[in-house]
Request: fold
Amino acid sequence: MRTWPRQSIRYALLVIAAGFSIFPLLVMVDTAFKTSPEIAGNQHWVPQTATLSFWSSALQSSVLWLWLRNSAIIATGVAVLTLAVAIPAAYVLARRQFKGNVLFLDTVLVTQTIAPAVLIVPLFELFRRFGLIGTFQGVILVSSAFVVPFSIWLLVAFFRQVPAELEEAAAIDGTMGLRFLLRFMVPTSFPGIVATGLWAFMYGWNEFMFSVTFLSGVSSRWPITIGVFTNSGEFFVQWQLLAIDAFVGTIPVLIVFVILRRRLELALGSTIGG
Amino acid sequence: MISGTSSLALEDNGERVATGLPRTSPRGLFGRPGKARSATTYLYLLPAVILLVGIFAVPLVQAVVLSLQKSAGLAGTSGWAGLRNYEDEFKDPLFWQIALQTVIWTVGVVVTTVVVALSLAALLQGRFRGRTVLRVALMIPWASSLAVSAVIWGFALQPNGLVDRTMTMLGLHVLEVPWLANTPQVTIVLIAVGIWASVPFGTVLLSAAMQAIPREIYEAASLESRSQVKRAWFITIPMLKQVLLIVTMANFVTVFNSFPIIYVMTDGGPINKTEILATYLYEKAFSDYDFGHAAALAVIVTVVLLAASLLYVRLLLHSSLKVGIGSQMARGRPGSNP
Reply:
Protein backbone atom coordinates (compact mmCIF):
# COMPACT_ATOMS: atom_id res chain seq x y z
CA MET A 1 0.00 0.00 0.00
CA ARG A 2 2.73 2.37 0.96
CA THR A 3 5.14 0.83 -1.52
CA TRP A 4 4.25 3.02 -4.47
CA PRO A 5 5.44 6.38 -3.07
CA ARG A 6 8.39 4.69 -1.45
CA GLN A 7 9.43 3.09 -4.72
CA SER A 8 9.23 6.37 -6.59
CA ILE A 9 11.36 8.14 -3.99
CA ARG A 10 13.88 5.35 -4.34
CA TYR A 11 13.91 5.74 -8.12
CA ALA A 12 14.13 9.51 -7.96
CA LEU A 13 17.14 9.43 -5.65
CA LEU A 14 18.91 6.72 -7.61
CA VAL A 15 18.32 8.47 -10.92
CA ILE A 16 19.71 11.74 -9.57
CA ALA A 17 22.80 9.94 -8.29
CA ALA A 18 23.21 8.04 -11.54
CA GLY A 19 22.88 11.27 -13.52
CA PHE A 20 25.62 12.82 -11.40
CA SER A 21 27.77 9.73 -11.97
CA ILE A 22 27.50 9.76 -15.73
CA PHE A 23 27.56 13.56 -15.99
CA PRO A 24 31.04 13.79 -17.60
CA LEU A 25 30.08 11.12 -20.13
CA LEU A 26 26.91 13.06 -21.01
CA VAL A 27 28.94 16.24 -21.41
CA MET A 28 31.40 14.48 -23.73
CA VAL A 29 28.70 13.09 -25.99
CA ASP A 30 26.68 16.29 -25.96
CA THR A 31 29.64 18.53 -26.75
CA ALA A 32 30.87 16.31 -29.56
CA PHE A 33 27.89 17.25 -31.76
CA LYS A 34 27.89 20.99 -31.21
CA THR A 35 29.02 23.79 -33.48
CA SER A 36 31.75 26.15 -32.33
CA PRO A 37 29.59 29.28 -31.93
CA GLU A 38 27.32 27.30 -29.68
CA ILE A 39 30.17 26.30 -27.40
CA ALA A 40 31.48 29.83 -27.25
CA GLY A 41 28.05 31.23 -26.38
CA ASN A 42 25.32 30.08 -24.06
CA GLN A 43 25.49 26.31 -24.02
CA HIS A 44 22.39 24.15 -24.05
CA TRP A 45 22.00 20.44 -23.51
CA VAL A 46 20.15 20.05 -26.80
CA PRO A 47 22.37 21.31 -29.63
CA GLN A 48 20.59 23.91 -31.77
CA THR A 49 22.38 22.67 -34.88
CA ALA A 50 23.97 19.29 -34.49
CA THR A 51 27.00 18.45 -36.59
CA LEU A 52 28.90 15.28 -37.25
CA SER A 53 31.88 17.01 -38.81
CA PHE A 54 34.05 16.88 -35.69
CA TRP A 55 33.67 13.12 -35.43
CA SER A 56 35.19 12.54 -38.82
CA SER A 57 38.06 14.94 -38.24
CA ALA A 58 38.73 13.55 -34.76
CA LEU A 59 38.67 9.94 -35.85
CA GLN A 60 40.86 10.71 -38.84
CA SER A 61 43.45 12.56 -36.79
CA SER A 62 46.52 10.43 -36.39
CA VAL A 63 47.23 11.91 -33.00
CA LEU A 64 44.17 10.33 -31.39
CA TRP A 65 45.21 6.89 -32.60
CA LEU A 66 48.76 7.52 -31.43
CA TRP A 67 47.49 8.35 -27.94
CA LEU A 68 45.26 5.28 -27.90
CA ARG A 69 48.15 3.10 -29.05
CA ASN A 70 50.40 4.52 -26.33
CA SER A 71 47.73 3.99 -23.69
CA ALA A 72 47.32 0.41 -24.90
CA ILE A 73 51.08 -0.19 -24.68
CA ILE A 74 51.29 1.21 -21.17
CA ALA A 75 48.17 -0.58 -19.93
CA THR A 76 49.19 -3.92 -21.45
CA GLY A 77 52.68 -3.50 -20.06
CA VAL A 78 51.31 -2.85 -16.58
CA ALA A 79 49.01 -5.88 -16.81
CA VAL A 80 51.79 -8.21 -18.00
CA LEU A 81 54.43 -7.03 -15.54
CA THR A 82 51.95 -7.06 -12.66
CA LEU A 83 50.89 -10.62 -13.37
CA ALA A 84 54.45 -11.80 -13.91
CA VAL A 85 55.46 -10.43 -10.53
CA ALA A 86 52.29 -11.11 -8.56
CA ILE A 87 51.47 -14.67 -9.68
CA PRO A 88 54.57 -16.40 -8.26
CA ALA A 89 54.40 -14.34 -5.08
CA ALA A 90 50.70 -15.04 -4.59
CA TYR A 91 51.27 -18.73 -5.25
CA VAL A 92 53.73 -19.26 -2.42
CA LEU A 93 51.80 -16.94 -0.14
CA ALA A 94 48.62 -18.90 -0.72
CA ARG A 95 50.11 -22.38 -0.68
CA ARG A 96 53.13 -22.52 1.54
CA GLN A 97 53.65 -21.64 5.13
CA PHE A 98 56.97 -20.02 5.70
CA LYS A 99 58.59 -17.48 7.93
CA GLY A 100 57.38 -14.01 7.06
CA ASN A 101 54.30 -15.08 5.16
CA VAL A 102 51.87 -12.91 7.10
CA LEU A 103 54.44 -10.18 7.61
CA PHE A 104 54.92 -9.98 3.87
CA LEU A 105 51.22 -9.64 3.16
CA ASP A 106 50.89 -6.93 5.81
CA THR A 107 53.94 -4.98 4.69
CA VAL A 108 52.70 -5.04 1.15
CA LEU A 109 49.52 -3.36 2.34
CA VAL A 110 51.33 -0.58 4.15
CA THR A 111 52.77 0.55 0.79
CA GLN A 112 49.23 1.50 -0.09
CA THR A 113 49.26 4.39 2.34
CA ILE A 114 52.22 6.05 0.64
CA ALA A 115 51.27 9.03 -1.49
CA PRO A 116 52.38 8.78 -5.12
CA ALA A 117 53.27 12.48 -4.92
CA VAL A 118 55.71 11.69 -2.12
CA LEU A 119 57.61 9.23 -4.28
CA ILE A 120 57.67 11.26 -7.43
CA VAL A 121 60.50 13.63 -6.52
CA PRO A 122 63.07 10.95 -5.66
CA LEU A 123 61.75 8.64 -8.38
CA PHE A 124 62.29 11.36 -10.95
CA GLU A 125 65.95 11.62 -9.89
CA LEU A 126 66.35 7.87 -9.83
CA PHE A 127 64.75 7.36 -13.23
CA ARG A 128 66.81 10.12 -14.76
CA ARG A 129 69.93 8.30 -13.66
CA PHE A 130 68.69 5.09 -15.29
CA GLY A 131 67.47 6.82 -18.45
CA LEU A 132 63.85 5.92 -17.77
CA ILE A 133 62.40 9.42 -18.12
CA GLY A 134 60.44 9.72 -21.34
CA THR A 135 60.09 5.95 -21.74
CA PHE A 136 57.13 3.62 -21.47
CA GLN A 137 59.18 1.33 -19.25
CA GLY A 138 59.46 3.96 -16.53
CA VAL A 139 55.70 4.53 -16.34
CA ILE A 140 54.99 0.80 -16.54
CA LEU A 141 57.39 0.07 -13.68
CA VAL A 142 55.87 2.61 -11.30
CA SER A 143 52.27 1.84 -12.19
CA SER A 144 52.87 -1.88 -11.72
CA ALA A 145 54.41 -1.28 -8.32
CA PHE A 146 51.18 0.45 -7.32
CA VAL A 147 48.95 -2.39 -8.56
CA VAL A 148 51.07 -5.35 -7.43
CA PRO A 149 50.12 -5.27 -3.73
CA PHE A 150 46.40 -5.47 -4.38
CA SER A 151 46.94 -7.98 -7.18
CA ILE A 152 48.83 -10.25 -4.80
CA TRP A 153 45.95 -10.09 -2.34
CA LEU A 154 43.40 -10.84 -5.03
CA LEU A 155 45.41 -13.73 -6.46
CA VAL A 156 46.02 -15.24 -3.03
CA ALA A 157 42.26 -15.35 -2.59
CA PHE A 158 41.80 -16.99 -5.99
CA PHE A 159 44.63 -19.50 -5.53
CA ARG A 160 43.27 -20.60 -2.17
CA GLN A 161 40.13 -21.73 -3.93
CA VAL A 162 42.05 -24.31 -5.95
CA PRO A 163 41.53 -27.65 -4.22
CA ALA A 164 44.60 -28.93 -2.40
CA GLU A 165 43.98 -32.42 -3.84
CA LEU A 166 45.03 -31.12 -7.23
CA GLU A 167 48.43 -30.26 -5.89
CA GLU A 168 48.79 -33.61 -4.11
CA ALA A 169 47.87 -35.49 -7.25
CA ALA A 170 50.29 -33.48 -9.32
CA ALA A 171 53.01 -33.99 -6.74
CA ILE A 172 52.62 -37.75 -7.02
CA ASP A 173 53.15 -37.39 -10.75
CA GLY A 174 56.23 -35.36 -10.02
CA THR A 175 54.81 -32.03 -11.16
CA MET A 176 55.76 -29.52 -8.54
CA GLY A 177 56.84 -25.98 -7.94
CA LEU A 178 57.05 -23.75 -10.96
CA ARG A 179 55.87 -26.47 -13.31
CA PHE A 180 52.82 -27.08 -11.19
CA LEU A 181 52.13 -23.36 -11.02
CA LEU A 182 52.22 -22.94 -14.78
CA ARG A 183 50.57 -26.21 -15.80
CA PHE A 184 47.81 -26.46 -13.21
CA MET A 185 47.49 -23.44 -10.98
CA VAL A 186 47.34 -20.84 -13.73
CA PRO A 187 44.81 -22.67 -15.92
CA THR A 188 42.59 -23.52 -12.94
CA SER A 189 42.54 -19.95 -11.66
CA PHE A 190 42.41 -18.45 -15.12
CA PRO A 191 39.24 -16.35 -14.58
CA GLY A 192 40.75 -14.83 -11.47
CA ILE A 193 44.01 -14.13 -13.25
CA VAL A 194 42.17 -12.47 -16.11
CA ALA A 195 40.25 -10.30 -13.65
CA THR A 196 43.48 -9.26 -11.95
CA GLY A 197 45.11 -8.53 -15.29
CA LEU A 198 42.17 -6.44 -16.45
CA TRP A 199 42.26 -4.53 -13.20
CA ALA A 200 45.94 -3.74 -13.76
CA PHE A 201 45.13 -2.81 -17.37
CA MET A 202 42.53 -0.29 -16.19
CA TYR A 203 44.97 1.17 -13.73
CA GLY A 204 47.61 1.55 -16.43
CA TRP A 205 45.15 3.07 -18.87
CA ASN A 206 43.99 5.71 -16.41
CA GLU A 207 47.25 6.46 -14.62
CA PHE A 208 47.99 10.16 -14.69
CA MET A 209 50.57 11.62 -12.35
CA PHE A 210 53.57 9.55 -13.33
CA SER A 211 52.78 9.76 -17.04
CA VAL A 212 52.41 13.52 -16.95
CA THR A 213 55.68 13.87 -15.07
CA PHE A 214 57.80 11.37 -16.95
CA LEU A 215 56.35 11.63 -20.47
CA SER A 216 55.22 15.22 -20.92
CA GLY A 217 58.48 16.12 -22.70
CA VAL A 218 58.01 13.40 -25.32
CA SER A 219 54.74 14.01 -27.17
CA SER A 220 55.13 10.88 -29.31
CA ARG A 221 54.69 8.78 -26.15
CA TRP A 222 51.69 10.55 -24.65
CA PRO A 223 48.84 8.29 -23.59
CA ILE A 224 45.27 9.52 -24.06
CA THR A 225 45.07 10.96 -20.53
CA ILE A 226 48.05 13.24 -21.11
CA GLY A 227 46.91 14.11 -24.63
CA VAL A 228 43.51 15.27 -23.43
CA PHE A 229 44.94 17.06 -20.43
CA THR A 230 47.65 18.88 -22.38
CA ASN A 231 45.30 19.93 -25.18
CA SER A 232 42.82 21.29 -22.66
CA GLY A 233 45.46 23.76 -21.53
CA GLU A 234 46.03 25.25 -24.97
CA PHE A 235 45.13 28.86 -25.57
CA PHE A 236 42.49 27.93 -28.11
CA VAL A 237 40.74 24.67 -27.29
CA GLN A 238 38.61 22.83 -29.84
CA TRP A 239 36.29 21.36 -27.24
CA GLN A 240 34.39 19.13 -29.66
CA LEU A 241 37.57 17.30 -30.62
CA LEU A 242 38.63 17.08 -27.01
CA ALA A 243 35.23 15.69 -26.03
CA ILE A 244 35.48 13.03 -28.73
CA ASP A 245 39.04 12.15 -27.68
CA ALA A 246 37.92 11.89 -24.07
CA PHE A 247 34.95 9.75 -25.04
CA VAL A 248 36.92 7.41 -27.30
CA GLY A 249 39.59 7.15 -24.62
CA THR A 250 37.01 6.14 -22.03
CA ILE A 251 35.35 3.40 -24.11
CA PRO A 252 38.05 0.71 -23.73
CA VAL A 253 38.12 0.94 -19.94
CA LEU A 254 34.36 1.03 -19.75
CA ILE A 255 34.19 -2.21 -21.72
CA VAL A 256 36.80 -3.78 -19.48
CA PHE A 257 34.91 -2.54 -16.46
CA VAL A 258 31.58 -3.98 -17.55
CA ILE A 259 33.29 -7.35 -18.07
CA LEU A 260 34.95 -7.09 -14.70
CA ARG A 261 32.19 -5.57 -12.60
CA ARG A 262 30.43 -8.72 -11.38
CA ARG A 263 33.67 -10.43 -10.51
CA LEU A 264 35.04 -7.43 -8.67
CA GLU A 265 31.84 -7.00 -6.73
CA LEU A 266 31.85 -10.68 -5.84
CA ALA A 267 35.50 -10.60 -4.80
CA LEU A 268 34.87 -7.55 -2.65
CA GLY A 269 31.68 -9.01 -1.26
CA SER A 270 33.37 -12.23 -0.23
CA THR A 271 36.31 -10.50 1.43
CA ILE A 272 33.97 -8.24 3.34
CA GLY A 273 31.37 -10.86 4.14
CA GLY A 274 33.86 -13.55 5.06
CA MET B 1 64.41 -27.54 -11.26
CA ILE B 2 62.98 -26.84 -7.87
CA SER B 3 64.13 -29.41 -5.43
CA GLY B 4 62.70 -30.53 -2.17
CA THR B 5 59.18 -29.38 -2.84
CA SER B 6 57.74 -32.81 -2.39
CA SER B 7 56.07 -32.02 0.89
CA LEU B 8 54.27 -28.81 0.28
CA ALA B 9 52.70 -27.60 3.42
CA LEU B 10 49.22 -27.12 2.22
CA GLU B 11 47.15 -25.12 4.55
CA ASP B 12 43.86 -23.58 3.87
CA ASN B 13 42.29 -21.15 6.29
CA GLY B 14 44.53 -22.47 9.00
CA GLU B 15 43.22 -25.96 8.50
CA ARG B 16 45.81 -28.56 7.73
CA VAL B 17 45.19 -30.42 4.55
CA ALA B 18 46.69 -33.85 4.53
CA THR B 19 49.17 -34.07 1.74
CA GLY B 20 49.76 -37.77 2.04
CA LEU B 21 53.42 -37.01 1.89
CA PRO B 22 56.03 -37.18 4.60
CA ARG B 23 56.15 -34.13 6.74
CA THR B 24 58.73 -33.35 9.34
CA SER B 25 57.55 -30.06 10.69
CA PRO B 26 54.86 -30.94 13.19
CA ARG B 27 52.87 -27.73 13.00
CA GLY B 28 53.46 -27.20 9.35
CA LEU B 29 54.38 -23.61 10.06
CA PHE B 30 57.49 -23.47 8.00
CA GLY B 31 56.87 -26.42 5.79
CA ARG B 32 59.68 -28.88 5.88
CA PRO B 33 62.68 -27.42 7.57
CA GLY B 34 65.24 -27.42 4.84
CA LYS B 35 67.28 -24.60 3.47
CA ALA B 36 66.84 -25.45 -0.21
CA ARG B 37 63.10 -25.54 0.12
CA SER B 38 62.63 -22.22 1.86
CA ALA B 39 65.15 -20.67 -0.49
CA THR B 40 63.02 -21.57 -3.48
CA THR B 41 59.98 -20.20 -1.67
CA TYR B 42 61.64 -16.85 -1.27
CA LEU B 43 62.70 -16.99 -4.90
CA TYR B 44 59.05 -16.78 -5.89
CA LEU B 45 58.73 -13.59 -3.88
CA LEU B 46 61.88 -12.02 -5.24
CA PRO B 47 60.47 -10.19 -8.28
CA ALA B 48 57.74 -8.60 -6.17
CA VAL B 49 60.23 -7.65 -3.47
CA ILE B 50 62.61 -6.07 -5.98
CA LEU B 51 59.83 -4.05 -7.60
CA LEU B 52 58.34 -2.84 -4.32
CA VAL B 53 61.69 -2.02 -2.74
CA GLY B 54 62.80 -0.20 -5.88
CA ILE B 55 59.66 1.88 -6.23
CA PHE B 56 58.70 2.41 -2.58
CA ALA B 57 61.58 1.86 -0.17
CA VAL B 58 64.51 3.33 -2.08
CA PRO B 59 62.70 6.56 -3.05
CA LEU B 60 61.42 6.99 0.50
CA VAL B 61 64.94 6.86 1.88
CA GLN B 62 66.07 9.20 -0.87
CA ALA B 63 63.28 11.64 -0.01
CA VAL B 64 64.61 11.83 3.54
CA VAL B 65 68.15 12.45 2.28
CA LEU B 66 66.96 15.04 -0.22
CA SER B 67 64.95 16.85 2.44
CA LEU B 68 68.17 17.51 4.37
CA GLN B 69 69.85 19.20 1.43
CA LYS B 70 69.90 22.71 0.02
CA SER B 71 68.15 23.11 -3.29
CA ALA B 72 69.96 24.78 -6.12
CA GLY B 73 67.22 24.98 -8.71
CA LEU B 74 67.79 23.00 -11.86
CA ALA B 75 71.31 22.16 -10.76
CA GLY B 76 69.86 19.88 -8.08
CA THR B 77 71.23 20.27 -4.59
CA SER B 78 74.18 22.05 -3.05
CA GLY B 79 75.28 20.63 0.26
CA TRP B 80 73.56 19.83 3.50
CA ALA B 81 70.93 22.03 5.00
CA GLY B 82 70.21 20.08 8.16
CA LEU B 83 66.63 20.61 9.22
CA ARG B 84 66.41 24.02 7.57
CA ASN B 85 63.92 22.90 4.91
CA TYR B 86 61.57 21.65 7.60
CA GLU B 87 61.97 24.83 9.64
CA ASP B 88 61.20 26.93 6.56
CA GLU B 89 58.00 25.03 5.97
CA PHE B 90 56.82 25.16 9.55
CA LYS B 91 57.46 28.91 9.65
CA ASP B 92 55.69 29.52 6.35
CA PRO B 93 52.08 30.65 6.83
CA LEU B 94 51.31 29.28 3.38
CA PHE B 95 52.22 25.79 4.59
CA TRP B 96 49.70 26.05 7.41
CA GLN B 97 47.07 27.49 5.10
CA ILE B 98 47.54 24.54 2.75
CA ALA B 99 47.56 22.06 5.61
CA LEU B 100 44.20 23.46 6.68
CA GLN B 101 42.91 23.25 3.11
CA THR B 102 44.06 19.62 2.99
CA VAL B 103 42.03 18.89 6.12
CA ILE B 104 38.95 20.63 4.72
CA TRP B 105 39.25 18.79 1.40
CA THR B 106 39.82 15.41 3.02
CA VAL B 107 37.11 15.67 5.64
CA GLY B 108 34.67 17.21 3.16
CA VAL B 109 35.12 14.45 0.63
CA VAL B 110 35.37 11.50 3.01
CA VAL B 111 32.45 12.31 5.30
CA THR B 112 30.08 13.09 2.45
CA THR B 113 31.24 10.08 0.49
CA VAL B 114 30.52 7.72 3.36
CA VAL B 115 27.06 9.18 3.95
CA VAL B 116 26.15 9.13 0.26
CA ALA B 117 27.57 5.65 -0.31
CA LEU B 118 25.65 4.32 2.68
CA SER B 119 22.41 5.83 1.41
CA LEU B 120 22.95 4.51 -2.11
CA ALA B 121 23.79 1.06 -0.81
CA ALA B 122 20.54 1.06 1.15
CA LEU B 123 18.57 2.26 -1.89
CA LEU B 124 20.09 -0.50 -4.00
CA GLN B 125 18.97 -3.31 -1.69
CA GLY B 126 16.31 -5.70 -2.86
CA ARG B 127 15.10 -6.43 -6.35
CA PHE B 128 13.53 -3.83 -8.56
CA ARG B 129 13.36 -3.03 -12.21
CA GLY B 130 16.38 -1.26 -13.67
CA ARG B 131 18.59 -2.18 -10.75
CA THR B 132 21.49 -3.44 -12.88
CA VAL B 133 21.44 -0.42 -15.19
CA LEU B 134 21.47 1.92 -12.21
CA ARG B 135 24.26 -0.01 -10.55
CA VAL B 136 26.42 0.17 -13.65
CA ALA B 137 25.72 3.88 -14.06
CA LEU B 138 26.66 4.48 -10.43
CA MET B 139 29.94 2.60 -10.87
CA ILE B 140 31.11 4.55 -13.91
CA PRO B 141 33.25 7.14 -12.10
CA TRP B 142 35.22 4.24 -10.66
CA ALA B 143 36.28 3.11 -14.10
CA SER B 144 36.88 6.55 -15.56
CA SER B 145 40.20 8.30 -15.83
CA LEU B 146 40.17 11.00 -13.19
CA ALA B 147 42.37 13.31 -15.24
CA VAL B 148 40.13 13.10 -18.30
CA SER B 149 36.98 13.42 -16.20
CA ALA B 150 38.46 16.43 -14.43
CA VAL B 151 39.12 18.09 -17.79
CA ILE B 152 35.50 17.53 -18.73
CA TRP B 153 34.18 18.71 -15.35
CA GLY B 154 36.29 21.84 -15.73
CA PHE B 155 34.81 22.46 -19.16
CA ALA B 156 31.25 21.93 -17.93
CA LEU B 157 31.86 24.36 -15.07
CA GLN B 158 32.91 27.23 -17.32
CA PRO B 159 30.62 30.27 -17.32
CA ASN B 160 27.53 29.51 -19.42
CA GLY B 161 28.61 25.88 -19.51
CA LEU B 162 26.50 22.81 -19.02
CA VAL B 163 26.57 22.95 -15.23
CA ASP B 164 25.10 26.46 -15.35
CA ARG B 165 22.52 25.24 -17.85
CA THR B 166 21.59 22.34 -15.59
CA MET B 167 21.09 24.83 -12.75
CA THR B 168 18.81 26.88 -15.04
CA MET B 169 16.80 23.79 -15.85
CA LEU B 170 16.42 23.03 -12.16
CA GLY B 171 15.33 26.61 -11.54
CA LEU B 172 18.43 27.36 -9.47
CA HIS B 173 19.45 30.61 -11.13
CA VAL B 174 21.33 31.70 -8.02
CA LEU B 175 23.75 28.88 -8.69
CA GLU B 176 24.90 30.20 -12.03
CA VAL B 177 28.15 31.50 -10.64
CA PRO B 178 31.76 31.60 -11.81
CA TRP B 179 32.43 28.20 -10.30
CA LEU B 180 36.17 27.97 -10.59
CA ALA B 181 37.15 31.60 -10.12
CA ASN B 182 36.48 32.28 -6.45
CA THR B 183 36.37 30.68 -3.05
CA PRO B 184 34.39 29.22 -1.49
CA GLN B 185 32.54 27.81 -4.49
CA VAL B 186 35.71 26.49 -6.09
CA THR B 187 36.46 24.47 -2.96
CA ILE B 188 32.90 23.16 -2.91
CA VAL B 189 33.08 22.22 -6.58
CA LEU B 190 36.37 20.34 -6.12
CA ILE B 191 34.97 18.51 -3.12
CA ALA B 192 31.92 17.60 -5.20
CA VAL B 193 34.11 16.11 -7.92
CA GLY B 194 36.11 14.31 -5.24
CA ILE B 195 32.87 12.83 -3.93
CA TRP B 196 31.85 11.94 -7.48
CA ALA B 197 35.06 9.94 -7.79
CA SER B 198 34.96 8.28 -4.36
CA VAL B 199 31.35 7.20 -3.91
CA PRO B 200 31.27 4.09 -6.16
CA PHE B 201 33.85 2.18 -4.15
CA GLY B 202 32.03 2.81 -0.89
CA THR B 203 28.72 1.88 -2.45
CA VAL B 204 30.03 -1.46 -3.70
CA LEU B 205 31.56 -2.38 -0.36
CA LEU B 206 28.63 -1.26 1.74
CA SER B 207 25.98 -2.87 -0.42
CA ALA B 208 27.91 -6.15 -0.36
CA ALA B 209 28.10 -5.87 3.41
CA MET B 210 24.41 -5.06 3.71
CA GLN B 211 23.50 -8.10 1.69
CA ALA B 212 25.53 -10.20 4.10
CA ILE B 213 23.41 -9.18 7.09
CA PRO B 214 21.19 -12.17 7.93
CA ARG B 215 17.53 -11.54 7.22
CA GLU B 216 16.46 -13.14 10.50
CA ILE B 217 17.91 -10.28 12.47
CA TYR B 218 15.55 -7.86 10.80
CA GLU B 219 12.63 -10.23 11.16
CA ALA B 220 13.25 -10.53 14.86
CA ALA B 221 13.60 -6.79 15.19
CA SER B 222 10.47 -6.02 13.25
CA LEU B 223 8.51 -7.64 16.03
CA GLU B 224 9.77 -5.02 18.42
CA SER B 225 9.72 -1.95 16.28
CA ARG B 226 8.11 -1.13 13.00
CA SER B 227 10.13 1.98 12.39
CA GLN B 228 12.52 1.59 9.49
CA VAL B 229 14.66 4.43 10.76
CA LYS B 230 15.07 2.71 14.10
CA ARG B 231 15.95 -0.55 12.43
CA ALA B 232 18.54 1.17 10.27
CA TRP B 233 20.04 2.92 13.27
CA PHE B 234 20.06 0.00 15.70
CA ILE B 235 20.77 -2.89 13.35
CA THR B 236 22.17 -1.90 9.97
CA ILE B 237 24.70 0.67 11.14
CA PRO B 238 26.14 -1.42 14.00
CA MET B 239 26.34 -4.47 11.74
CA LEU B 240 28.23 -2.41 9.18
CA LYS B 241 30.61 -0.84 11.68
CA GLN B 242 33.62 -2.75 10.45
CA VAL B 243 33.03 -2.06 6.76
CA LEU B 244 32.20 1.58 7.44
CA LEU B 245 35.54 1.88 9.19
CA ILE B 246 37.32 0.31 6.23
CA VAL B 247 35.59 2.55 3.72
CA THR B 248 36.38 5.62 5.80
CA MET B 249 40.04 4.75 6.30
CA ALA B 250 40.63 3.73 2.71
CA ASN B 251 39.02 6.91 1.47
CA PHE B 252 40.93 8.99 3.98
CA VAL B 253 44.27 7.76 2.67
CA THR B 254 43.33 8.08 -0.99
CA VAL B 255 41.72 11.48 -0.72
CA PHE B 256 44.50 12.90 1.44
CA ASN B 257 47.00 11.75 -1.20
CA SER B 258 44.92 12.77 -4.15
CA PHE B 259 46.36 14.59 -7.09
CA PRO B 260 44.67 14.58 -10.53
CA ILE B 261 41.37 16.35 -9.76
CA ILE B 262 42.94 19.42 -8.17
CA TYR B 263 45.96 19.51 -10.45
CA VAL B 264 43.81 19.39 -13.59
CA MET B 265 40.87 21.56 -12.53
CA THR B 266 42.50 24.45 -10.69
CA ASP B 267 46.20 23.69 -10.41
CA GLY B 268 45.87 24.89 -6.82
CA GLY B 269 44.49 28.28 -7.81
CA PRO B 270 43.15 30.86 -7.47
CA ILE B 271 46.29 31.98 -5.59
CA ASN B 272 46.91 28.69 -3.78
CA LYS B 273 43.40 28.64 -2.38
CA THR B 274 42.73 25.07 -3.51
CA GLU B 275 46.20 23.66 -3.10
CA ILE B 276 46.55 20.59 -0.88
CA LEU B 277 49.84 19.19 0.41
CA ALA B 278 50.18 16.61 -2.37
CA THR B 279 49.72 19.13 -5.18
CA TYR B 280 51.75 21.76 -3.35
CA LEU B 281 54.81 19.56 -3.00
CA TYR B 282 54.50 18.59 -6.66
CA GLU B 283 54.50 22.26 -7.67
CA LYS B 284 57.48 22.93 -5.42
CA ALA B 285 59.40 20.21 -7.19
CA PHE B 286 58.39 20.56 -10.80
CA SER B 287 57.51 24.25 -11.13
CA ASP B 288 59.97 25.80 -8.68
CA TYR B 289 62.60 23.04 -8.96
CA ASP B 290 62.93 23.30 -5.20
CA PHE B 291 63.57 19.64 -4.52
CA GLY B 292 64.80 20.16 -0.96
CA HIS B 293 61.59 21.75 0.27
CA ALA B 294 59.48 19.41 -1.85
CA ALA B 295 61.20 16.43 -0.22
CA ALA B 296 60.69 17.94 3.24
CA LEU B 297 56.99 18.26 2.47
CA ALA B 298 56.97 14.70 1.21
CA VAL B 299 58.45 13.46 4.48
CA ILE B 300 55.92 15.47 6.48
CA VAL B 301 53.04 14.00 4.46
CA THR B 302 54.42 10.50 4.90
CA VAL B 303 54.76 10.90 8.66
CA VAL B 304 51.20 12.16 8.98
CA LEU B 305 49.92 9.27 6.92
CA LEU B 306 52.06 6.80 8.77
CA ALA B 307 50.38 7.87 11.97
CA ALA B 308 47.09 7.22 10.25
CA SER B 309 48.29 3.91 8.92
CA LEU B 310 49.25 2.76 12.41
CA LEU B 311 45.57 2.86 13.11
CA TYR B 312 45.17 1.17 9.77
CA VAL B 313 47.54 -1.62 10.74
CA ARG B 314 45.74 -2.07 14.03
CA LEU B 315 42.55 -2.61 12.11
CA LEU B 316 44.51 -4.82 9.83
CA LEU B 317 45.42 -7.17 12.65
CA HIS B 318 41.73 -7.77 13.11
CA SER B 319 40.75 -7.97 9.51
CA SER B 320 43.90 -7.97 7.48
CA LEU B 321 42.52 -8.70 4.08
CA LYS B 322 39.67 -6.29 4.27
CA VAL B 323 41.50 -3.06 4.87
CA GLY B 324 44.07 -3.71 2.21
CA ILE B 325 41.56 -4.53 -0.41
CA GLY B 326 39.73 -1.43 0.66
CA SER B 327 42.59 0.94 0.26
CA GLN B 328 43.66 -0.38 -3.08
CA MET B 329 40.19 -0.47 -4.48
CA ALA B 330 39.56 3.09 -3.43
CA ARG B 331 42.76 4.31 -4.94
CA GLY B 332 42.96 1.62 -7.49
CA ARG B 333 40.19 3.15 -9.10
CA PRO B 334 42.40 2.90 -11.98
CA GLY B 335 44.25 6.07 -12.49
CA SER B 336 44.92 6.15 -8.80
CA ASN B 337 43.76 8.67 -6.30
CA PRO B 338 41.24 11.41 -7.04
Observations:
- The mean pLDDT of chain B is 79.
- Residues 11-67 of chain B form one domain.
